[in-house]
From TrEMBL:
<protein>
    <submittedName>
        <fullName>Uncharacterized protein</fullName>
    </submittedName>
</protein>
């Protein structure tokens, strides 16, 4: 990967932080949900956020 600017680095950091926050938020919502469908929805959303974060990190290598 070539050199990146400070602005690009800050944007990358922001994207990763957002994905991580979504992942944890959805996990917490899933843990608190009592309705099985709602629980499953948030579990899938958490898995999707995790996958997005991992995919993004792969592009950075």
């Amino acid at each position: 990967m070539g050199n990146i600017s400070e602005m690009e680095l800050q944007n990358i950091r922001h994207l990763l932080t957002s994905a991580q926050t979504e992942e944890k938020k959805y996990q917490a919502y899933a843990e608190q949900a009592t309705d099985p469908q709602v629980k499953q929805f948030f579990q899938k959303a958490s898995q999707s956020a995790t996958q997005n974060k991992q995919t993004f990190l792969q592009y950075l290598q």
